[in-house]
Amino acid sequence: MEITYKTSGTCARLIHFERDAENRIHNISFEGGCNGNLKAIAKLCEGMKAEEINAKLLGNLCGNKPTSCADQLAKAVMSQIA
């Protein structure tokens, strides 16, 4: 299933990814944000279960913002768990 998630409070505006039947996340990409860092996050999270991404990235902050692109990815993948 292909998903597009609208972020809140980050430089990245959208997160695109696919979720398979086992809740594994694939083909993560971000629109906006720090290109190199977000490509690295996408590579590191490729094939991980949504719960694993959430456990590692939820609560990660960017500067003095109350969230980050990584935190938004955690929220995005968990928003798709049935």
Characteristics:
single chain, 82 residues, alpha+beta, 3 strands
User: What is the helix tally?
Assistant: 3
Helix/strand/pairing category:
alpha+beta
SS strand fraction: 15-25%
Summed over residues and divided by their number, the pLDDT gives a mean of 96
**Which percent range fits the helix content?**
25-40%
Low-confidence stretches: none
Shape: globular
Distance between the termini: 13 Å
- Please trace the helix and strand order, writing H or E for each element: EEEHHH
Number of DSSP-assigned strands: 3
Q: Biggest β-sheet, characterized? A: 3 strands, antiparallel
Radius of gyration: 11 Å
* Tally of discrete structural domains: 1
Widest sheet: strand order? 1-2-3
**Assembly of the depicted chains:** single chain
